[in-house]
Amino acid sequence: MRKKINSKYIKIKDIILGNPDKSAIIIIVASFVFIFILSLFRFVLYDERLYLHETSLIAKLLGSGVWFGDYAVGVHGFLFKLPVAVLFLLSGPSVFIATFFHVILATISAYIFYKILRNNLNLRGWAILGLILFVTNYSFISWSITFHRETPVIFALLLFIKSLLDKKSNFFLSLTLLLILDAKEYIFYVLVPTLTLWILFIELQNKKILISKKLLNLIQKLFVLFIPSLIYLSLSFFTSLIPINMFNASLLGLTEDSISYQLKHISTSNYATREPAISFKQLELLKDIDGINKVQSVIVRSVQFMLGYTEKLFYLSNFSFQSIPFVILIPSIIFSIIMFLKWKKEFNYHFIFLSIFLWEFMGIYFIKISHQRYLYPVIPILLIFFIYFLKNLYENNIKDKQLKYIFVILSILILIFAIYPNNNFFKKIFELIASIIFLSQIYLYSRLKKRIFIVFSLLSISIFTLFVTLVASAFNNQLYNSIIWGNHGETCKISELFQPKDIIYVNGTGIENNKWMYMIKFFRQDPSLEKEWHWVLVNNLPKKKLLKEFCCQNTFVGDEWNNISEFKKFIKNNNIEKIVMVKSTIPSVLFYNQELIDQLMVQNWLNLDDVKSLKNKEVYIFINNGNSIDEKR
């Protein structure tokens, strides 16, 4: 029996390693098919509704012969929205087209990642295993089938890293940095100090050149690397050529609140999310106890500070199989140090960038309010160092004592994670079991030296992450919502009930982070987008006077009103012709103000025009007849 298993393992190994490029193509195609099938069960969530709306407006403006540089379409950039907007000119607003574009970008990203492992780092067969880990990662699958900015930025970042390791010219690298700035500006701002430190480190290795010359070389290289991005930013702030990204304005202190918004995100009371950390809540109570002097208060505050940031490690979605688990994180960080020293010794200075970027990114991640989604750009780097860990283990380059230290650190972290009070009990059990299975396989390999345990350890991680992805989809995310409400809540069907010229009101879902009724604005190509999204620009910034809105709003969604009289005034002030009230037929779910539908039906200024039954909801369509008589009692 053992011989049969070993012979099958050898055959599989020969097939994969015999032609790794062919194996990689098969894996990438399989990944493409998998995420494409998942994308068919789409349900727009969170901020992507804004990015889709912006893309729809770009298409509408281009179709009208108007350049979009002065319009509110630049949140997290516009370059990766532009191809989709052009396609919208032919198809009309389509979530499928937008999603498919991201599926293609994600697939290309997977290929670039493989080429980095295979060609640049010369990891050969290990590149296949790294690719499998990447395409089965929860973040890769989850964000690839959305229109969030995570997919464009992972594409741009991997393209930049591939170009850097290929030793492309600084000018070419500058163009890839521009793509990163456009896709997700915060990654660009992380790269600024990373590149500065990396170039400085390389310059300092040359002992024959004067310090002044080294500093001059540093400035020259940084200038070439960042000049396209500086031009891009200048054009967005001072001209009509490029739309402004309000996040750039906030990060650079060009809004009325300057950088106070950004400073809030490094507040010591908010570590993992916007909610105060548990240690903060508990230790905050000690300050009010009588008898505590100033010294004791400082000690409490210091402990509170340290524990708060430590807590971030144990917030469920951060370092788990829902993102990057401890069993990958800790070996990766350790090997980022080991490989840094090795590359330095071998004069592989371009590879050193990977270590510096990882350290810089993780440092900022811990200081700033952040969550699982923000980790996605650094996951490929973590996986690279994790592969180095397994490769060295496989080649017996890790001493038993070193492996023991890794096991101790992981055991402590996993134990604390298991008792951390804010995490779901069943999720904690899963994480605990999955981590123990992985560690047991690594332990068995270290004792028995059977290399099949290395393969099993990698496959187990992929299986666990795939399992988490499917469970999350089925019980919480897109698949779950599309099964309950239909794709996008059938907002496309609701939109088709009206003519483009109709001015309508639609009640929202009233569900936090699930405002899918907003998608009716997208499908109706409503042009209304706030000129200064989320922030107010300073008065002396030229772009402020250039900003425009495209006429005219045709869809109002979920605007707050508390009674019929207030609602009637809102309808009159906005010249709304048709009122759409969507009612949930699921008893446990109530959409915004659906309980007032019966009252609306007896208003003399409204006529009930139609009632449509859709998936787990009913759509009531009222017509404003213009009657100004007071409502009936």
From TrEMBL:
Q: Name one GO biological process term.
A: lipopolysaccharide biosynthetic process
Q: Which GO terms describe its cellular component?
A: plasma membrane
Principal location class: membrane
Q: Which GO molecular-function terms appear in the entry?
A: pentosyltransferase activity
Q: Give the UniProt subcellular location, in the record's own words.
A: Cell membrane
The alphabetical list of record keywords is:
Cell membrane, Glycosyltransferase, Membrane, Transferase, Transmembrane, Transmembrane helix
* Membrane-spanning parts: 24-45, 57-79, 85-114, 126-145, 186-202, 222-244, 319-341, 348-367, 373-390, 402-420, 426-445, 452-475
What organism is recorded for this protein?
candidate division WWE3 bacterium RBG_19FT_COMBO_34_6
- Membrane-related topology note: Multi-pass membrane protein
Q: What is the lineage of its organism?
A: Bacteria, Katanobacteria
Which InterPro entries does the UniProt entry name for this protein? Answer: LipidA_mod_glycosyltrf_83
Q: Which protein is depicted?
A: Glycosyltransferase RgtA/B/C/D-like domain-containing protein
Q: Which domain of life is it from?
A: Bacteria
